[in-house]
Prior knowledge:
Blueprint: H1 5-19, E1 23-32, E2 35-43, H2 50-65, E3 75-80, H3 91-96, E4 101-106, E5 111-119, E6 123-128, E7 137-142, E8 146-151, E9 173-177
Amino acid sequence: xxxxxxxxxxxxxxxxxxxxxxxxxxxxxxxxxxxxxxxxxxxxxxxxxxxxxxxxxxxxxxxxxxxxxxxxxxxxxxxxxxxxxxxxxxxxxxxxxxxxxxxxxxxxxxxxxxxxxxxxxxxxxxxxxxxxxxxxxxxxxxxxxxxxxxxxxxxxxxxxxxxxxxxxxxxxxxxxxx
Length: 178
């Protein structure tokens, strides 16, 4: 089985990303006219600051200049964090989203909007908002009951104690042409 360019790039970039105490979430190469876009998505428990994206972008650019991993065709390098509305695909994503409102497509059909209260190895404890003055209800949802999920952006939510400031949820992105 041959490896794709994205897989080879992931193997090349993973040690560089982890040396900065970041997690490599995604590596994607897509065509964009006569160029290609190399998009590198990184994250951490504390989120990713713009300076960290800029520093990592310079490191990745230097590493790619020293290899033939991107070939000879021009490309644009984007180093970014997942952003506030990122898909929840791994256990750690749900843990980081604790306290946040999510929208989940259920494997048995239907959709659920609820706040994550707790996460364990089997699934989520949720608080489903009440409708028309009703109190919120608790619900348990196993991971295998979730087809896909993402964080819902809340513009009017009052900050709860311990919540990160709203600006910490914004996606930081650095682009560099090579």
